[in-house]
Amino acid sequence: MDKKQFLQELNELDVAGKSVARLYCDISALAMKYVDFNKRANRCVHYLSIEFLIGRVFFNNLLELGVLDEVNAVLKKKGVDIALFEEIEDAALGNGGLGRLAACYMDSGAAVGLPLYGYGIRYKYGLFRQTFENGFQKEVPDDWQKFGDPWSVRKENESQIIHFADMDVTAVPYDMPLIGKRINGLRLYQAEGSEAAEKISGVLYPDDSSEEGKLLRIRQEYFLSAAAVGDIVREYESRHGNDFHYFARENCIQLNDTHPVFAIPELIRVLKTKGLSYRKALNIAQKVFNYTNHTILPEALECWDKKLLVKILPDIVSILQKMDQTQSRKHRKEGYSEEEIVQTHIYDKGSRRFSMANTAVFVSEKVNGVAEIHSEIIKRDLFAAEYAHHPDKFTNVTNGVAQRRWLELADPELCRIIDEKIGPHWREHFEELASFAPYITDPDVLDGFAAAKEEKKDQLFAYIGKTEGVELGCGKLLYAQVKRLHEYKRQLMTAFVLLRLYFDLKEHKIDGFAPSVFLFGAKSAPGYARAKGIIKYLNEIIKKINADEDTKASLLGVFVTEYNVSYAEKIVAATDVSLQVSTAGLEASGTGNMKFMMNGAVTLGTMDGANIEIVEKAGEESNYIFGARVEEIERLRKDGYDPVAWLREHPEWMRVVSTLIDGTFSDDGTGIFRELYDSLTVGASWHRPDHYFIFRDVDEYYRAVLKVNKDYQEREKFAGKQLANVVNSYYFSSDRSVKDYAERIWHISVKKTKVEEKS
Ligand code: 26V
User: Fold this and answer.
1) For residue 276, what are the domain limits?
2) For this structure, is 484 an active site residue?
């Protein structure tokens, strides 16, 4: 980019009388003028994902273009505070970790110079915006384009027609630049042509409880898959015509979970229309695709009814069925047992459903989980049969997060402390953060860090005071649990711990408790009643605690509204203790845990997902681990577990849990608190009582919360633990993750700059 020219134009920009939105669009559009997309590399990776949780791009893009400070200065001169643009929230085209991971990988691909291209859907409405009404979550449509979309370019001439049996839909691409050492692109497709067509890119995760809802989900998934495949093939043909010999050498497709798996039969279908045999087409597909699994929860593993699929995608059904036959023959030849054949098959004759995960595993060259333990679990359980016969197919790539957004933008104060000791080079080569290690025992550094943390807390609390109307004071220990609301993440267990703390503080049972704040942020899927019940319960608990004059100096809670990427940036920088308390074995990785670590929070959590690797790197002594390990949870599942007997034996917890049904809190007559109670004691929705083993872990959790509170009071020593986390967080950079993908899965090399080649 021609920085000088850009800044000159910016200097000339007339700001008088312009609204924040207008200025945002003008400045973004000006920057876009100077963005040149890189040419295609010899081999490209195409990352297909139903979610891209990008968040605000304004600051990130200016940082990547290397002009953030200058723009800040120019605007200041003109009397415009750059912070005003924080009002503008960009695309939240994702729901949680899966989508944010995709966004971090796009960021890192460009940053490290990999030809990594994203394909997704340009939903008109992103993830809903959340409000609370009397403590209940309410959803408001997220009209993210109301400020314009100045960072995207519509590419009308690269539109395609996507065929369904009952309609044709136009897929129009919008390209967003991904700025770094390379400028890659994220291509999001918008569905156009008719009212029914437009619905396809209407909202992220439409309710799929009805048949109509399921059909819409299938349409979305096929729409994304077919548009991406069509684009990749068209681009290839523009260079090689009808000769598909080089296709697999030049293209690699990464399936981010099962949602884009239709890309497999679609590629086979398209290649057949180009004159290739089914065999040849399958052969190419087997060299092109790779699949990342992001969950083992059965309810999230997609299977589609043949009856539904055949209505709108009959050709895809024929191909899937043919693949199922090929698979059975191949597996018999390879000596799979009948039981193994049943476990791996693409089409299940009994339920008449197609398994998207099994389709992906069959075709993919590589299958990976997203943290060490998760990759082990999928090999041992979910895909055990395939692993037994093709062990080399499986690998692991532990997730990572983009440190440019999650440390540099989120916590400049901490970055300056690091710069002072080791210079700024680590910002480009994040592994150099390790050389900060000798300074984490330096008393000045420890004091400086503790002071910077206080400053971030003050900033966050001031923001919360303004937006939520809750005053949190200062000098508090901050515990935070922010993530999607799901029973396996066990926000309900934290609710019980918080209530127990409150009761014990009120009755003077705890000595020397450092004044603390418990912060929650989460959205619940609109149709997930129990998750919504947990939000209401937490809000009721917080209301009670915050109103109690006896305890409010020691304990406060807040459930922030509309938790999103920008809120997360503020929260991770301010937090002391990161709560990561999922039932062991169920959180594939977690990425929030990494963001907190990077900003110097200790992890208080279970041995699950990436927590295990965090503790391995930063040391068990710098973190707070509690609860049952995977092996114990498995044993409890097998040998039996009696939560009711446990409650009976623990009256101090019975008292806490009973507040769900004894009238302490009102659920406004909805009965949802009773349902939560029943889910723990009787069982609900085919689940056994306390399916997520809250009562196994809750007491240990409580003790760990007290322990961290005590340790925090030795502020300098505790700062040392926090900094040990910062120093060792370099491993959790998504730059490292994408390089791992490049090496283990994509087989492309990261192009070194001239400077790097010399050094
Ligand atoms: C989706 C659903 C949808 C239906 C209701 C139940 C349910 C449960 C879980 C999911 C998760 C789908 C996949 C996903 O988002 N996985 C997350 O991926 C992150 C990035 O790899 C990872 O850090 C998280 O641990 C994992 O939950």
Assistant:
1) 44-51+94-125+152-303+366-396
2) yes
